[in-house]
Structure formats: C-alpha cells, structure tokens
Specification:
FAR1 domain-containing protein
C-alpha cells in the first residue's frame, strides 16, 4: 500500500487497529543524517515489547501497576519511497494476546495530548527546515564575502605595488631633476 504522507499512513494504521481491536503505538523512526527528516517509521501494537521495571531505582513506587506489554510483534513498517509516497515495506498481522472486542475499551480518537504532540512535531519539523534554509543562506553569504575579500586583497596589493613604483619614479625624478 502507498500513502501520500507519513500522517496518512499513521491514520490508516490507527483506524485499522481500532477496527481489529488493539491500540496503535508509534514505535521508532529512521531519520536522514543530512536534514533530519523522517525516512521510515515503525507502527505497532501497544503491547509490543516488555516493560522493564524501574522499581527501586527512583525510590518506592506508590502504586505498582500491571505491565501492559506482552511482547506482541504486530506492526507495519512504512518507508518514504523515491516516488515521494510512503510505502508499507513490512506487515505483521498476528497478535500474541486477545484483542479488544468492546469499542469503548479501544481508543476511539486521538486525545488532546496526542494532537498536541503531533502539532509540536510538525512545528519542530518546519523550524528545522527553516533553520536549514537559513544555514544555507548564511553559507552562501559567507562565500560571497570570501570572494569579495579576495578580490579586495588583490586590488590593495596592486595599489601597494603601484605606489612602490611611483615612489621609485618620484625618487629618480628628484635625483635627476
């Protein structure tokens, strides 16, 4: 399957998760080293992996909770393709736990926190692009300044050489004149 954007792929898998009876979780991504944009994303079941207990490391836990993780492998991997589309490159359908039947138990829509995270992520992405553009402009400006200072140095060098020649001519005229 292909999608127009990463968000479209997330919305598709989130809707699929709701219909099947599990909660979608954004698991990991791979970014471009050049500009930091996301090139691939892994989305899966919220019961993926296992909870690592941090009890005792940060003092006593007031209300110990049961782990929601069960090592589930269900997931999709979407990748930004050369065509400009997001393509599913891997799909694992099987869950190792019972799925939620009652729709009220499954998350129906993105809550306010998820929406805020999505907005801030988009804003951060835009700021990074803007920063990269400013950096390119600054580098171009610095190259222009370097070129001009080289040309200016050559002109100053020529003026100094001309002055030395005129000083020699002036001294010869004073001596012979």
């Amino acid at each position: 399957m292909e999608f127009e954007s990463e968000d479209a792929a997330k919305m598709f898998y989130d809707e699929y998760a709701r219909r099947v009876g599990f909660v979608m979780r954004v698991m990991s991504c791979r970014r471009s080293e050049r500009d930091g944009r996301i090139l691939a994303r892994r989305l899966g079941c919220n019961k993926e992996g296992y909870c690592v207990s941090i009890r005792g490391k940060f003092g006593n836990v007031r209300k110990p909770r049961q782990s929601t993780r069960e090592g589930c492998k269900a997931m999709i991997h979407v990748k930004f393709d050369k065509s400009g589309k997001w393509v599913i490159t891997k799909f694992v359908k099987e869950h190792n736990h019972p799925l939620v039947v009652a729709p009220r138990e499954a998350r129906q829509t993105m809550d306010a926190k998820d929406k805020k995270i999505q907005e801030l992520t988009a804003e951060l992405r835009n700021k990074k692009r803007l920063c990269a553009t400013y950096q390119e402009q600054l580098l171009a400006f610095m190259r222009i300044i370097d070129e001009h200072s080289e040309q200016l140095s050559k002109k100053v060098q020529n003026v100094v050489e001309n002055l030395k020649e005129f000083e020699i001519i002036d001294k010869e005229l004073l001596l012979h004149g």
